[in-house]
């Protein structure tokens, strides 16, 4: 069976579908002919991509609920009876992790356990693709760029909650045989994701958009921190490949961990990213602030995804920033065009 025909008609439950990545991924899966269902909180930002680009119209059903509510989550999984689950829902911000550590651990760690348990109990589910982050790795300059076998760690609540989610996943993977429950759990670890429609606080490109809107200077927390910058559609393609794998014939493997990082030249300092963004958008006055602990340098080795999945980033950093600037400029000047523009960018990426 060819890869693309596996998703056509497949029933996929997406957690976190009301968020930034979830919105892009939902449209991509719908365009591939999947029947999509969602589970998440209502959009948390105003504005939100989910509303601006009419994402809701792509769903067969969507449930607004909290991952903490196992009974609602489990009922949703049983009602939808998905072939696979894409688990994106999370509290995804390092700074919010410091402000709300319990919510962060509840959502990211316990929430992952709830998803896996609901999946285990639902016979329709062939596998789960769980999205963690490059921040699951224990900071160690000697281990850079991290391969999938590098040590897990986490020096702040967000990083620790995602590393702990991976321990939960490993515990489930290793117990599947004892439960006689064939199911794959694939884990995707990506870097700093950007693209049109992200309005989260404390993220550099949404901050740039807000500075354009308000006319005030852009505040930079760590201008010299180097980050693996990636367009959201390169990650969505990675998640598609893992969903195809989960839907494949071979359920004997309990699943693996995968790094999806950018090409080496696209891991650049925050300040250099801003200079590139200014070139495709507009000049921006800057202010430098001191912030809380955040890992200074992160880099991923993605050789395994290149060789075993055939995944490579398709968009150069310059092109990805151009598409992103186009999207935010439209949000300011032609908001009515956003549903069509978002779908055009997905089509252009996939063509
Ligand atoms: N954006 C990045 O740079 C980046 C980098 C690496 C990994 N990730 C991971 O990718 C995933 C998606 O990130 P994003 O940037 O799209 O986030 P986002 O904040 O835009 O979306 C998060 C989604 O999770 C849902 N959610 C949050 N708490 C929930 C709860 N308690 N119950 C149910 N739903 C809940 C929200 O409603 C939303 O739909 C997350 O797992 C994140 O950790 C993101």
What name goes with the CATH superfamily of the domain at 3-193 and 230-264 and 297-315? Answer: NAD(P)-binding Rossmann-like Domain
**Average pLDDT over all residues:** 95
Radius of gyration: 19 Å
Helix-strand makeup class: alpha/beta
Largest sheet: 7 strands, parallel
Instruction: List the uncertain runs.
Output: none
Give the ligands present: nicotinamide-adenine-dinucleotide
CATH architecture of the domain at 3-193 and 230-264 and 297-315: 3-Layer(aba) Sandwich
* Shape designation: globular
**Oligomeric status of the shown chains?**
single chain
Would you give the CATH topology of the domain at 3-193 and 230-264 and 297-315?
Answer: Rossmann fold
